[in-house]
Write a structure and sequence with these properties.
This is Ribosomal RNA large subunit methyltransferase H. By secondary structure, the chain is α/β, with parallel strands linked by helices. The protein has helices at about 15-25, 50-65, 85-95, 115-120, 135-150, and strands spanning about 1-10, 30-40, 70-80, 100-105, 125. The protein has one domain (about 1-150): Alpha/beta knot (3-Layer(aba) Sandwich). The chain has a 5-stranded parallel β-sheet.
């Protein structure tokens, strides 16, 4: 399976980079994982509705340009479906079973995802109704992907 994590913005925090690198390394026996960063759109603090839309659209165009046409696209969004780790594992297993060997996870910027990206998704996933920094979500996501592979292989992993 080839997994691409497409995310808006550069990751600066060393501790997050190290955590992500560790899980990507742990995933290497199971899947090829690539993290693709697209530039975030610079914007002032107090944006009008139109300016927010424009920022999301520009970031969305960058995201869409990185999605392989035959990828199954999973967006991370507050209003997405919440899954247990076991259900995410089953979803990943089902995708592999039914020939969806390319999966793209998309993490938007601080304003969220554009309508165009949401229209391209195959599944909307929510980790919580809470808002998390998108940089931190990279680490949480890659850990959950690793956990899913361990669950599917019946291998031990801490609970």
């Amino acid at each position: 399976m080839k997994i691409t994590i497409i995310t808006v913005g550069k990751l600066k925090e060393k501790y997050l980079k190290q955590g992500i690198e560790e899980y990507v390394k742990r995933l290497s026996p199971y899947a090829k994982v690539e993290v693709v960063e697209v530039a975030d759109e610079k914007a002032p603090e107090n944006l009008s509705e139109a300016q927010m839309l424009e920022v999301k659209q520009k970031e969305g165009e960058r995201i869409l340009s990185k999605i392989n046409p035959d990828s199954y696209v999973i967006t991370l969004e507050i209003d997405g479906q919440q899954l247990t780790s076991e259900k995410l594992a089953k979803k990943m297993d089902d995708l592999a079973t039914y020939g969806k060997s390319k999966v793209a996870f998309v993490i938007g910027g601080s304003l969220g995802l554009s309508d165009e990206v949401l229209q391209r998704r195959d599944f909307g996933l929510s980790f919580s109704k809470m808002t998390f920094p998108h940089q931190l979500m990279r680490l949480v996501l890659v850990e959950q992907i690793y956990r899913a592979f361990k669950i599917n292989r019946g291998e031990p992993y801490h609970k």
